[in-house]
Write a structure and sequence with these properties.
two-stranded parallel ribbon; 2 strands; alpha+beta
């Protein structure tokens, strides 16, 4: 994995297998993951661990894609 060379000194990236038991020594302020829809076997376990390892007032965000095409203004129709 390639990290951008200009990362603020207070930022640390952790790369791990999120489906294994989390053994981090402390909690995180931010947990971010994306494009895992087809990769995770046990979503309830992942969400429980993310909740357990997020600091009070912290933020966990999971992003993924939506395979349904749509338009916010209604210009894309079924036709």
């Amino acid at each position: 994995m390639v990290m951008h060379p200009r990362v603020p000194p207070n930022v640390k990236f952790e790369v791990d297998d999120c489906e294994e038991l989390w053994t981090f020594p402390k909690k995180f302020d931010v947990i971010h993951a994306r494009y895992l829809a087809a990769a995770i076997v046990d979503w309830p376990k992942l969400m429980a661990q993310a909740f357990q390892f997020t600091n009070p007032g912290g933020y966990s965000e999971f992003q993924d894609y939506d395979l349904v095409f749509y338009s916010e203004d209604g210009s894309l129709t079924d036709d």
